């Protein structure tokens, strides 16, 4: 079967073709999305508490975030094809079970190393959820308008979960302790498993792609080696054999991945997708936007609690402008995209990142609250405005049969950007070579704010240039 042929859903034994309660099916899928996406951001606000309790270095803190994001990004595509082959509800429930188990293990981790390993378990489960859930939604809402509304609701939950992470993390860390940010996932995950069994019908694809083990291994090497080099570079030395070897392994694996995927009939990553200008632009936008935003969250949580002496609750409350801006701007951006003003939304997003990061370049330990709140709101505007254009651009240049695969690749690009942002934020901050964080945390982060400004400027340029370039579809 050609990789561009349509996969038709078929009924599984004992399953119905259509969910008897489609809105409840959507709610269960969105519950899983809320858990997985929130987990990318909720940990940031607890980092100072984790460091204090587990005596973690800056490197350890970076890995407590990036171990999760690297694994999720590495296995998203495999999880999607596995769900199509073995049953979407089955993979969805297995993912919830593994995610809940990983969350439970994280909540009792006795050391930073064990916490990082448990985050990997958690991420393996998390990688199964979103691709399976999106396939379930696509097969539940067969009418075009209904499906568009369901996907719009799905996108809104994405923004809400990312916005809620720092706030909920601050409350739980302050009242119960940092372990609660993981423990709270367990009862929710178990409830979602039961609800999925009750309201989500089973389905599979009539034809699925063959497993691409070489491609999967190479994707893991590319991401893991590159992020490892960025995180460990300041401590080991950028010219050390270890770091040079990691960069070389990442580059070599990337070259091998391109060669292998071109030669395969059913590749893990269909490189023809990148022949579409909108899709390539969406991938770049996702990486740039989430690099800036994730690095911002990582450094801000440390700055507020270390340099400003805030409690986790107060630090989370300071992030309220970010959350509110995302909640307001995401639907506004969606309307702009629907009205064919995608370029406007992208340019506004890039300008917001530039202005927000520009304000933070003057940040000090005694900076006034107005500067903080305006800068934090601008980062929320940036991410809120850019998310709908990413999803729209990813699928607009694709054959309709490949919209799901394109969306999964765009999601993976977001997570890659999140991992890259955290790795860069910690690695370019002075004073982290011995694992310590400067008490004057704001100046230590200035180099990253300039990186974020660069990301914003490129986003603006992409928004303008992509609108001038005719859409093209992969052959």
List the helices and strands and how they pair.
Elements: E1 9-11, H1 22-42, H2 47-54, H3 58-86, H4 88-107, H5 112-140, H6 144-175, H7 180-183, H8 185-199, E2 203-205, H9 213-236, H10 241-263, H11 277-307, H12 312-318, H13 320-338, H14 342-360, H15 369-396, H16 403-427, H17 441-444, H18 446-468
Antiparallel strand pairs: 1-2
CATH domain class of the largest domain: Mainly Alpha
The Rg value, from CA coordinates, equals 21 Å
Biggest sheet character: 2 strands, antiparallel
| Order of strands in the sheet with most strands | 1-2
Shape summary: globular
* Total domain count: 3
Fraction of residues in helix: over 70%
**SSE run:** EHHHHHHHHEHHHHHHHHHH
Q: What is the CATH architecture descriptor of the largest domain?
A: Up-down Bundle
Mean pLDDT, rounded to whole units?
82
Unreliable stretches, pLDDT < 50, 5 or more residues? 1-17, 432-441, 470-475
Proportion of residues in extended strands:
under 5%
Strand segment count:
2
Total helical elements: 18
Structural class given helices, strands, pairing? mainly alpha
